[in-house]
# Entry
Amino acid sequence: MTAREALSRLIKGVHADLGDYRTLRELLEAQFDAALKHRAAVINDVANRITELTSQLEKRRVERVTLAKLLVGKQSNVTISAVAERLPANARPAFNEWWRTLERQVQECKRLNERNCHLLMTQHEILQRVMQTNSAGTYAPA
# Structure
C-alpha cells in the first residue's frame, strides 16, 4: 500500500467515525431515555445497536493505528500530529479540525456512557433492595 493510499484510508476512517460518533451519541441519549422510562425492550435493542456500532468504531481504530504506523514508521512515536505532517500543508488544518472534532465526540460519548451506566446501576441497586425487602415479607401474599 502506498503512503497516499494509507492516508486516504485513514482520512476516510476519520470521516466515518465522525458520522458514527454522532449516531452513538443519539443511541446513548435514547438509552438514557429508555432507562428513565424503564423500557427494557428498548434498552436491550439500543444496547445491541451500540454494541454493533462500537465494534465498527474499534475496527476502524485498529486500522487507523496500523495505517499510522505505516505512514510514520514502526520505530517512530506514532501520533496523529506525526500523521498530519505527512499531509500536504494545505490539507493539514482541515484534518486537524476533523481530528479535534472526533476527540470531542469521543469524550462526549464517554461522558454519556458513564451517565447511563450510573443510572442503570442505580436502578439495579434499587431493584435489588426492593427484592431483598420482598424476601423479608414486604410484598408477601395476604
About this structure: Residues 84 and 92 are 6 Å apart (CA to CA). The two ends are 74 Å apart (CA to CA). The chain has one domain: 3-135.
